[in-house]
Amino acid sequence: MDRYSRLLKRIRTSSAFGAVKASLEGKRLIFTVTTGRSGTALLSALLSLVPGVASLHEPDPNFALVMRRAQTNRALALKFMAYEKLVAVAGFKESVYCETSHLFCKGFFEPTLDLGILPELILLKRDRRKVAKSLFELNTIPGRTPLALIYYLKPDDPSVFLPVEDWSRLNDYQLCYWYCLEIEKRMEVYERALLERGGRCYRLRFEELVTPDGAAGLLERLFSLPRESVERLKEPLAKLLERPINAKKEIKVRRLKEELPSETLAELEREVEELVGFKGVEWE
Predict the structure, then answer these.
(1) Residue 54 pairs with which residues in a beta bridge?
(2) Secondary structure of residue 122 in the 3-state scheme
(3) If 0-12 CB within 10 Å is exposed, 13-18 middle and 19+ buried, where does residue 277 land?
(4) Integer Cα distance of 234 and 231 in angstroms
(5) What are phi and psi of 226, to 5 degrees?
(6) What was the pLDDT predicted at 99?
(7) Distances, alpha carbon 54 to alpha carbons 28, 90, 177, 234, in Å
(8) What strands lie across the sheet with 53-56, from one edge to the other?
(9) Cα dist. 63→129, 181, 259 in Å?
(10) 176 and 141 in contact (C-beta within 8 Å)?
């Protein structure tokens, strides 16, 4: 039995964790699988409009504290979920807890399942190129810049589904694009894993999220709201959507040189896709 298995057994049989798990009975836990730069702050604000829902974006205890180390230390992720995150979640009186941080899908989904907790997942997808360009402009380059090491995966992390040998030869934009492909692969893998266990997943495109009808449709799907309740929410939804949330325009420090034409970007992207053998499944 390896270290992780021994730790898991110790946690699951402890009275302290038993009490935490008991307090979570009947509570819905909803997390996201997404890249970031995809509307997670907006999503959190929208979900918070529903009574009885605790909706947070990147609350404490923050996954960012351990995400990087958790890539090579699965036991750390397990301890974080058992002793910190789930304890905090249990403290909320609301019957639904939603956290839209894009870090949950970077090492914390599997330990949650191992602990006997079946979360729900919102698979939030935004156009890969738009996300990759946003990451590039913010100079958050996976594997290369300090902030990216805290928040993003890199191609040689042990947990990635699309590893790249000698990934240093990729340029900055290609690394941003690789990251988008990796998260899409996680959407596919985690959706399948959850559905096999009888869990629930909700596919959501960014374009739906930023319209009143699309946002209302999501709330209706998530919470089985009656039509009259959805209609009442449309006005506050529209007001919320009028203002930008977390756009970060003031700190975008880089631009793609001379605004590279789409043909050039397509060539760079195709090289990455061929390198990792990516065959994405398009959503209907």
Answers:
(1) 97
(2) strand
(3) exposed
(4) 5
(5) -65, 155
(6) 98
(7) 10, 11, 33, 19
(8) 53-56, 96-99, 28-33, 120-125, 201-205
(9) 26, 21, 34
(10) yes
pTM of the shown model: 0.93
Token pair listed for 120: 């729900």
User: Rounded to an integer, what is the distance from CA 242 to the centroid of its chain?
Assistant: 24
End-to-end CA separation in angstroms for the chain:
43
Q: What is the DSSP letter of 185?
A: H
In this predicted model, what pLDDT tens digit does every residue of 175-219 receive, in sequence order? 999 999 999 999 999 999 999 999 999 999 999 999 988 999 999
Q: What is the sign, positive or negative, of the torsion defined by CA atoms of 158, 160, 162, 164? A: negative
DSSP label at 197? T
Nearest C-alpha neighbor of 237 from the set 214, 266, 260: 214
| Contact in structure between 4 and 82 (CB atoms under 8 Å) | no
List of residues 6+ apart from 67 with CB closer than 8 A: 103, 106, 107, 150, 151
3-state helix, strand, coil in the chain (%, to 5): 55, 10, 40
Which residues, including other chains, have CB under 8 Å from residue 30's CB and lie 6 or more apart?
47, 96, 97, 98, 99, 119, 120, 121, 122, 222
Q: Tell me: cis bond preceding 61? Omega within 30 of 0 counts.
A: yes
Q: How far is it, in rounded angstroms, from Cα 246 to Cα 172?
A: 23
- Size of the chain, expressed as the number of residues it contains: 284
pLDDT in tens, 55-71: 999 999 999 999 999 99
237 neighbors 46 (Cβ within 8 angstroms): yes
